[in-house]
Structures
1.
Amino acid sequence: MGSLQCHPFPDYMNVSALLTEEQKMICASVRDFVSKDVQGLIREAYQHEQFPMSIVPSLGSLGLLGANLSGYGLPGMDAISYGLVMKELERCDSGLRSFVSVQGSLVMYPIHAFGSEEQKKTYLPALASAEMIGCFGLTESEGGSDPGAMKTRAEKRGKEWVLNGSKMWITNGHLSKIAIVWAKTEEGIRGFIVPTDAKGFKAKKIKGKLSLRASETSELYFDDVKLPENALLPQSQGLKSALSCLTQARYGISWGVLGAAEACFDEAVRFSKERILFGKPLASKQLIQRKLALILSRITQGQLLALRLGQLKNEGKLHFAQVSMAKQNNCELALQAARECRDILGGSGILDEYSSMRHSNNLETVITYEGTNDVHLLIVGEQITGIPAY
């Protein structure tokens, strides 16, 4: 793998010069894996609304699941390396990054941060190797941007917990062996590890999505699901614990969407040079060059923002509102880039042999989940003014 290099373009400000050799190696290795083993599967996966499960063992063997966590045989990758992994995965498809992001940031992280030693030893190695798939249950049909309004409850009855309620928009829900479920208790909101084969647990696949089709999404239902005492994540304390998981996922998204934007940009540049219009390459037209220059400028700004975010995370100085700024900014620029690139492709852009429209459709979901675009602006707005406007 030593001879591989991350594609230097679009890297207009030579951000790659600020990366360590190890970070460049990780980036190149993931790109090589995606190019050889995943890229050819995504088109059909998107068409059929199915995640390509054949690649899951490789995600585990390459150390991409929970890659930024330490101990228990986990890679302990630094924040920038992890961000580069997310970027290379989403360069292929947002559904691929979502799978890895959910497994690592929303399933493994809460166990790592809030679990008992027994839970960590039991679940983290199995989740890292992809022997076990997990999902994260926070959002409810009537909750959305207000997770504190959840109705799912867990009641203590003797030495058991009894879980009732439902969750919505759950990535990998019907593919999972365990679910990290957040529920109201007498002590406030707590997290639980729920086996999906428990009596009373039901997962229903959500069909008919026009976005993120290579990612599988479910509704979860809990009807008197009985759990042992040790199903509780003992260190989970209130909604703050659940939201800290989302901060981890949003960090990865801030990097990931840049991969989608870069893929669209590369495709548009290539197409515009090859497409002959009025006897000249489309790339020779002022309007096209203006569009490409603006797209590249926005991508470059996003790259610099993500890099600084990673530096702060490595230093242990990252604030959740900084992650909100990066998630909002980079999702918006990526979606705008994908739409502009689809426009440059003209009629060809609606064909699935090109990726820009697929990325654009996917990004409509990414700009909405893990906190909507507007909610992240309000998080930053509260930091500016000191006044919450939710």
Note: The chain has a mean pLDDT of 95.
2.
Amino acid sequence: MGISNELFQTEREEQCPNATVKMPNDGTNTNPGQISTPNPPFDVLSDIEHFAAFMRFLAPPKPSDTEPGGSASILKGKEIFNQIGCHLCHTPALTTDPNSRVVALAGKTANLYSDLALHHMGRNLEDGISQGEALGYEFRTAPLWGLGQRLFLLHDGRTNDLLVAIREHRGGKSEADGVIRQFEGRSESDKQDLLNFLRSL
């Protein structure tokens, strides 16, 4: 979005002629005496912190037991998901830290369908962008929860076709090559069951 903050203080384009502000665009309000809103303790926080708190306390997406394809298809698709190895990176559930400083979030099960780890995803997904320690062909496993509500798929939104998104995981040293081979070896019925499971999340 081009908004610098306390964590990312430098504009992506450092030579931008419009980058005249030397401070981050958003930061902690260090002069709370000037706050005139009804929630002074919270207004000290930066907009980024407000947004993070909002996201942290959102309810997780609720998967469907019946849509699309019916419950039998969804259950079979879930079995296939595990049999072919999707679950190795798209880990169905993780547990939050039981000692979290946010008591409401301590020791909770999150059905993310992600291991939150970086993986080599090969030439089909490679975008040449390095971010932090991740090179252009490495990606954090995207959580699949809420997949049924997404219009665009993959890190760059290049497709709205789930089958295309799955097949883009293969190629050129991708860690998912073996999983995609297993998927392609399945019957059309099995593939549809897997797609129904994914769209039910």
Note: The beta strands are 94-95, 109-110, 118-120, 138-140.
